[in-house]
Amino acid sequence: MINVALLSKWHVHAKDYAKEASENKDITISVVWDENRERGEQWAQELGVPFEADLENVFSDSSIHGVIVTTPTTAHTEIITAAARHGKHIFTEKVLAPTVKECDEIFSAVEEAGVQLMVSLPRLTERFYLYAQKILDEGCLGNLTSVRCRVAHHGAVPTEESRHGWLPGQFFNKEEAGGGALIDLGAHPIYLSNRLGGKVKAVTARLQQTNGHDVDDNAVVIVEFESGALGTIETGFLSYGCPDQLELYGTEGTLLIENREPRELISDRVEKDGLIMSDQLPKALPSAMEQWVAAITKNTDPTITKEDIRSLTLMNEAAALSHKEGRRVELSEIGKSYSAITK
């Protein structure tokens, strides 16, 4: 049994991870810590577990085997490296850290401690992505020429109750969140595009602050892949009723996916194209948390990799620099180049 501590309810997905952990037969939630004591005590009471105000006491408790981190993003590096030094396995909300330099610090601490680290990049385990990857790998689209991926919602559209909309106010605090729509919701189209398009050469980005927020609430990134293909990453907190969209275009085919359901394949390389039936899709992979548990208990290799995790932050950092300086940014300008990524 893996005894875990829940570290902070800052992120909107904290409750989701707590629910998944509580439903996993190999995990027991043992304690809650939160930088906001009132919030943490209430959460601990809801879960029927103790609250611990001193994080060092959590880390020093030998009965705690792992931590689930949903703290402010900018606190990830300090908390995750400390957890690793104390021999705790780590499951964390995306992104791992705001900068590539911090990611590398975390990787070093994790490797030295010999613990398992998992970042939740959930759509890499879903059937629609696995189908898209299969279609590409089998050459059904010919040479990939363009990728478009959009994930957006209306969480920052002001309401009578809140000028921030239904998202919590802390999501718009740059000192805590480290960024806005792109670093959070935009993670999904970034890591999907990274997998499907391959290694990225350069980006040009525009991060808008539409409603006077401290962070971006609407963003677009134009991606240049090393293969010569182009990509468009779109995200935001201002789009009501917006469907998730993934479009792959190649020299011999097109694949259209909406709301995580493949809709249509048009290709000269398949016997029968057109509408896609659900029985044509691959089986989903185990979730990020299930893969984390398997890595701890069975020493298996997760399908969500160090390169997926690091490249997500690399793209965010390059996009932020592109917006700030109003120019095209090559990824080799940020931290180490792709070729230097250690496996």
UniProtKB/TrEMBL annotation:
<feature type="domain" description="GFO/IDH/MocA-like oxidoreductase">
    <location>
        <begin position="129"/>
        <end position="255"/>
    </location>
</feature>
<dbReference type="Pfam" id="PF22725">
    <property type="entry name" value="GFO_IDH_MocA_C3"/>
</dbReference>
<dbReference type="InterPro" id="IPR055170">
    <property type="entry name" value="GFO_IDH_MocA-like_dom"/>
</dbReference>
<dbReference type="InterPro" id="IPR036291">
    <property type="entry name" value="NAD(P)-bd_dom_sf"/>
</dbReference>
<protein>
    <submittedName>
        <fullName>Gfo/Idh/MocA family oxidoreductase</fullName>
    </submittedName>
</protein>
<dbReference type="InterPro" id="IPR051450">
    <property type="entry name" value="Gfo/Idh/MocA_Oxidoreductases"/>
</dbReference>
<dbReference type="InterPro" id="IPR000683">
    <property type="entry name" value="Gfo/Idh/MocA-like_OxRdtase_N"/>
</dbReference>
<dbReference type="GO" id="GO:0000166">
    <property type="term" value="F:nucleotide binding"/>
</dbReference>
<dbReference type="Pfam" id="PF01408">
    <property type="entry name" value="GFO_IDH_MocA"/>
</dbReference>
<feature type="domain" description="Gfo/Idh/MocA-like oxidoreductase N-terminal">
    <location>
        <begin position="15"/>
        <end position="119"/>
    </location>
</feature>
